Amino acid sequence: YLPLLRLLEAQLQDQRREYEEEVEALKNQVDAMQEELEKQQQAFLQTMQLSPEVQVEFGIQQEITRLTNENLDLKELLEKLEKNERKLKRQLKIYMKAQDMAASQATAVMGRSQRESNMQVAVQRKEKDFQGMLEYYKEDEPLLIQNLII
């Protein structure tokens, strides 16, 4: 029982330490938010003391600053998404090459085994007209094309 108790005690201490770190981080976040709120309140009070024309100009400057920051955030997000897209395209190309290799190997194996089975038993099979990688009914072709375009 002693090793089990030590293990449980160690886990409890780890959890307590993680909890304390999380509480400390949240306290820091609350302090930062309080400081930001105080700054905004001071700026608001100063703005209220200005003339209406200056208040409008100040509001416009604030909105320009906000939109600029939002624009920068969106550009950063766009760059991140483009990078992820390139990564996914590379992975897709690798996956497609692997699929092609696997299909060619499977075809070669099936060809050998089919030749062997043709010698033993004649198997009937229904011929299908395949075009590409999708199997669909001919009457569904316009709907499929429309969905691909959309």
- Strand proportion, as a percent range, falls in under 5%
Overall outline: flat
Helix-and-strand structural type: mainly alpha
| Approximate helicity band | over 70%
SS elements, strand count: 0
Quaternary arrangement of the chains shown?
Answer: single chain
First-residue to last-residue Cα separation: 65 Å
- Rg (CA only): 33 Å
- Pattern of helices and strands: HHH
Mean pLDDT: 83
Keywords: Coiled coil
Coiled coil: 2-98
Protein name: MYO5B protein
Organism: Urocolius indicus (Red-faced mousebird)
Topology:
Layout: H1 2-48, H2 52-120, H3 141-149
In short:
By secondary structure, the chain is an all-alpha fold.
Task: Explain what this protein looks like in three dimensions.
- With 150 residues, the chain is mainly α.
- The protein has a domain at 8-49.
- Helix content is 83%, strand content 0%.
- It contains three helices and no strands.
- It has helices at residues 2-48, 52-120, 141-149.
- The longest helix is centred in the middle third of the chain and has 69 residues, at 52-120.
- The model has no long low-confidence stretch (mean pLDDT 83).
Descriptive keywords:
150 residues
